[in-house]
Amino acid sequence: MSPLCPLLLALALAAVPGVRAACPVPADLKNPNGTRTCARLYDKSDPYYDNCCGGAELSVEPGTDMPFLPAGWNNVASSLVVAPRCDITVWSQRGKAGKTRKFSSGTYPRLEEFRKGIFGDWSNSISSLYCRCP
């Protein structure tokens, strides 16, 4: 088998619609009035990437500092999209305590894939956050 075959397969999968998550492209994160959004959290993810980034959503503006998430959002987010040139720092406990992780610009359809210590992951584990776009 030629060493070129795996590369061609990867390119073909990237070009096929529906292979990537149904999450928005980070550059498309904007409010209805056209202003910039730093990040967007979603309460649904799925083993099938096409079904991720669904359900309720929480948009976070640049410079938002939330030591306590709004009612109904504590330990709920399971998908995340971060706008270009932005990053979001999340904590596992309210008041910016516990485990922490920084997510840079990109799409994170399944937070289950990101480890939080030895036994946990970041799905349904975000209790506080800080989002910035320098």
TrEMBL record:
<comment type="function">
    <text>Functions in exocytosis in pancreatic acinar cells regulating the fusion of zymogen granules with each other. May have a pore-forming activity on membranes and regulate exocytosis in other exocrine tissues.</text>
</comment>
<feature type="signal peptide">
    <location>
        <begin position="1"/>
        <end position="21"/>
    </location>
</feature>
<keyword id="KW-0472">Membrane</keyword>
<keyword id="KW-0268">Exocytosis</keyword>
<dbReference type="GO" id="GO:0042589">
    <property type="term" value="C:zymogen granule membrane"/>
</dbReference>
<keyword id="KW-0732">Signal</keyword>
<dbReference type="GO" id="GO:0006887">
    <property type="term" value="P:exocytosis"/>
</dbReference>
<dbReference type="InterPro" id="IPR028137">
    <property type="entry name" value="Syncollin"/>
</dbReference>
<protein>
    <recommendedName>
        <fullName>Syncollin</fullName>
    </recommendedName>
</protein>
<dbReference type="Pfam" id="PF15138">
    <property type="entry name" value="Syncollin"/>
</dbReference>
<keyword id="KW-0968">Cytoplasmic vesicle</keyword>
<keyword id="KW-1015">Disulfide bond</keyword>
